[in-house]
Amino acid sequence: MDVSTAVDRRKSVRSFLDTPVPNDIIGELLTKAARSPSGGNVQPWRVYVINGESMASFRTFLEGREIEAPAYDIYPKGLTEPYRSSRFAIGEQMYATIGIEREDKAGRFAQMAKNYDFFGAPAAFFCFIDRQMGPPQWSDLGMFLQTFMLLAQEAGIDTCPQEAWAMWEGAITEFVGAPGEQRLFCGMAIGHEDTDAPINTVRSEREPLEIFARFL
After folding, report:
1. CATH topology classification for 3-205
2. Which pTM value belongs to this model?
3. Where are the domains of the chain?
4. How far apart are CA 184 and CA 166, in angstroms?
């Protein structure tokens, strides 16, 4: 698979099969992803993989726990246009595929809660970053995650990056044993897409080139 095809095919999968993904494959993808750009070669990513027994243990660990205050603002407060409308549109598109109306708050909450089961994925990782790091290193982190997802596509594996896990930083830090100087950024669901799931038919739109780019 060439890079252009991997970029085009990559999407956030929200319903996975239970087909296992071996740790050695995840490790190989992470090793390759570590070649992504990093200013000053700082390499700020710190990754904790859960799979198999550790995934089962994690799901049990979360039972009965309360959602925490978010570790950071996932979206800016008072998000302005055109960003607000873009966020609203993809949400409506996603819920429409599974027949959940805007007024169905219980249905929307139930779908949101599936984030915290990795949408049924058999494997996942949590990505942390040292608290001393600033925006440039967070940019490096994003490039690392994108590189991982494209490599996963090449290997026939699907993913879903999940900032929703920012609502569980304390619990996740405790479970994985991350040191206090590390802060959670996101989770990454890893597995194989359930192609029969309607929610996986969502393909988000992108703005045309003339909207986001100027050639001077």
Report:
1. NADH Oxidase (3.40.109)
2. 0.95
3. 3-205
4. 7
